[in-house]
Amino acid sequence: MAEARTEPDKIHIRDLLLRCVLGVYEAERKDRQDVVIHITMEADLRQAARSDRIQDTVNYKEVKQRVIELVDRSSFFLVERLAEAIADVCLQEPRVQRVRVRVEKPAALRFARTVEVEIVRERPADG
């Protein structure tokens, strides 16, 4: 008998604090700035839950490391572009079907704690 599923399984990486060159203004591009990244990956985790084997799940440590490498070497103008690139990294994981990426840029606006962009991307139907 098939299991009824109402919500997808999710893996969250929250409050990943990194630094990168990000912004459209010259002053923003002189020094690396703080960004805070939140990632939610949707994947079917039932096999891993039964087997207790890392090979049967999304290795979130490896995903985190690839995100760090991407952000560290990036030099995007827009927060939206950074979020898209992070989503692409997550969707390279074969088990990840959908990803939600939130990128905060704390120093973006005076008098505001942060500016945040959130995107959701899905694996293409053919791949």
Can you offer a commentary on this structure?
With 127 residues, the protein is of the alpha+beta class. It has one domain (10-122): GTP Cyclohydrolase I, domain 2, CATH 3.30.1130.10. The protein has helices spanning 46-51, 60-73, 79-91, and strands spanning 10-22, 33-43, 75-76, 96-105, 115-122. Helix 2 (60-73) runs antiparallel to helix 3 (79-91). The chain is elongated and about 55 Å long. The two termini are 27 Å apart.
CATH topology: GTP Cyclohydrolase I, domain 2
Global shape: elongated
Number of beta strands: 5
Average pLDDT figure: 94
| Name of the CATH superfamily | GTP cyclohydrolase I, C-terminal domain/NADPH-dependent 7-cyano-7-deazaguanine reductase, N-terminal domain
What proportion of the residues form beta strands (DSSP E)? 25-35%
Tally of helical segments? 3
**What is Rg?**
16 Å
Keywords:
127 residues; alpha+beta; GTP Cyclohydrolase I, domain 2; 5-stranded mixed beta sheet; 3 helices; 5 strands; 35% strand
TL;DR of this structure?
By secondary structure, this protein is an alpha+beta fold.
List the helices and strands and how they pair.
Elements: E1 10-22, E2 33-43, H1 46-51, H2 60-73, E3 75-76, H3 79-91, E4 96-105, E5 115-122
Parallel strand pairs: 1-3
Antiparallel strand pairs: 1-2, 2-4, 4-5
Helix pairs in contact: 2-3
